[in-house]
Design a protein that fits this description.
The chain is of the alpha/beta class and 487 residues long. 43% of the residues lie in helices and 10% in strands. The protein contains 14 helices and 7 strands. The protein has a 5-stranded mixed sheet with strand order 5-4-3-6-7. The chain has a two-stranded antiparallel ribbon with strand order 1-2. A hairpin with a 7-residue loop joins strand 3 and strand 4. It is extended and about 120 Å long.
Length: 487
């Protein structure tokens, strides 16, 4: 047996080794995040592995050595009947066009005793038609031989002296901001129907529609800022500007959501700096739920704002740390999972605000205390730059905001509702790539806001926008709130 040689290192060398190890852990975490972005699944759902279950290629060596080959035979009964494919149930509300098919060479003495009916779904392209408004003119003669010509007033049109009706304008808006079809693709679709509409014409109609809807957008903004509980988040949008030929400016949509009344508002700003929420929230008073982004800290109106944080963002940090420290990350994810199970239970039972508060105080509060104790213990046992160390530090930094949701039954455990509102912007970026200008981005914010409210209230967007565009120019200004989407 060889003698083991003792190696002595200085305190400085030991500190350097720790720093190198921390750097290695950080680089491994960054590589894992990059691989996740390129190849990984997008779902954040965490499903714990069953206890004592080994995974493929991880069998203990002893079990591998003892495995033997064994031939097994069995008899199986084969059924002659094949499984029938289930036919799609056709909704009853769809219009029916009846087609009667009579037998060939039907004898005269044949008597009808019934009929076989087969229903098949068919499709017709969108029906574009011309609304022809005819206003007869009448001449009226007076006794004094004066004559007057009388004709009816022209019905209200969304664009004065324009030839686009409310339903067509609504279709164009929904096609772009719900179905994510850029205007140039829509012009191609119209051409297939032998209708030539230039992209510049559609852009002009879009601008006119936004000007028409802007007062309703301002009403929506006022309604949202009256709330005492809001969620806030932001998402980037590339902007084409003259300042950057051949490149785009990175602007941001700041989104504010009222979970109680289910209203959302998009606000465009050129930067991601604090000035954007500072301006919008200058008169807000109440609770504000956000992620850990520092722009929401120390707002000018901070004395009137109580902050809540998003548990989903904390959970995401631990989910990303699974490759770094599976044992600790699994414990945190399982514990956070118990908190979410309480929320699912409350939703399934349709509990009231007071009942949710009582349930959280009884079941969630002890779990949060256990999680906090674990975080305090493990923060000093992990490397600060490691994925698990960053997850623990992030959660502890926001802890007072994270646990605040149990103080009122109307609060949500996370910001997922507002992230769902932002999703159409992310999908749209992949299709129309950028906004044509800063003004166009703010105009798009008007449409995104109204359509997000439609989605939350389960309102069909095409019918809604058609109705609003048809009515808004003659609707009383002090009653515009009546035109907001509602169930």
């Amino acid at each position: 047996m060889k003698n083991e040689e003792m190696v002595t290192i200085t305190k400085q060398e030991y500190q350097e080794l720790l720093a190198q190890k921390a750097t290695i852990e950080l680089l491994k975490h960054q590589l894992a995040e990059l691989q996740r972005i390129i190849f990984g699944a997008k779902s954040e759902r965490y499903i714990p592995s069953p206890a004592n279950q080994t995974t493929l290629f991880e069998l203990p060596e002893q079990e591998v050595a003892e495995m033997k080959t064994e031939e097994i035979s069995y008899t199986r009964q084969k059924s002659d009947t094949k499984k029938q494919a289930l036919r799609l149930e056709i909704p009853s509300h769809l219009p029916r066009k009846e087609e009667v098919v009579e037998p060939d060479f039907l004898p005269e003495q044949a008597k009808k005793i019934g009929e076989n009916i087969t229903e098949v779904l068919e499709y017709e392209p969108a029906n574009i038609y011309v609304r022809r408004i005819v206003r007869p003119k009448y001449i009226i003669s007076q006794d004094d031989e004066q004559t007057h010509i009388i004709t009816a007033e022209l019905p209200n049109l969304p664009i004065p002296k324009g030839n686009a009706g409310a339903s067509l304008l609504a279709h164009i808006l929904v096609s772009k901001f719900v179905d994510h079809l850029p205007f140039y693709r829509q012009t191609q679709i119209f051409k297939r129907q032998e209708l030539n509409i230039s992209e510049s014409t559609i852009n002009g109609w879009f601008n006119a529609s936004c000007r028409l809807l802007e007062p309703l957008y301002k009403t929506l903004k006022n309604q949202i800022l009256k709330a005492d509980y809001l969620m806030a988040d932001e998402t980037p949008i590339p902007i084409q500007t003259k300042d950057k030929p051949g490149a785009t400016h990175k602007g941001y949509y700041w989104v504010y959501y009222d979970p109680v009344h289910q209203l959302a508002m998009f606000d465009y700003n050129k930067t991601r700096g604090r000035e954007a929420p500072d301006e919008i929230l200058k008169d807000f008073s109440g609770h504000l739920q956000t992620d850990g982004y520092t722009a929401y800290n120390n707002l000018k109106n901070q004395r009137h704002i109580i902050q809540l944080a998003c548990m989903a963002h904390a959970r995401r940090k631990f989910e990303h740390a699974l490759d770094n420290d599976r044992s600790r990350a699994n414990w945190a994810l399982n514990t956070i999972g118990k908190l979410y199970q309480i929320e699912r239970s409350a939703k399934e039972q349709s509990l009231t605000r007071d009942e949710i508060y009582s349930l959280r105080q009884k079941d969630a509060k002890p779990i949060l205390a256990e999680l906090k104790s674990w975080l305090d213990k493990n923060i000093n046992e992990t490397l600060p730059k490691s994925a698990i160390g960053q997850a623990i530090a992030y959660t502890l930094t926001l802890w007072s905001r994270l646990e605040r949701y149990i103080e009122d039954g109307k609060f949500k455990i996370d910001n997922n509702l507002i992230e769902n509102s932002i999703r159409p912007v992310a999908i749209g970026r992949k299709n129309y790539l950028f906004a044509g200008s800063h003004d166009a981005a703010q105009q798009a914010a008007i449409i995104y806001s109204l359509l997000a409210c439609c989605k939350m209230h389960e309102v069909e967007p095409l019918a809604y926008l058609t109705k609003v565009l048809d009515k808004i120019s003659v609707h009383p200004a002090n009653r515009l709130a009546e035109l907001l989407p509602s169930k």
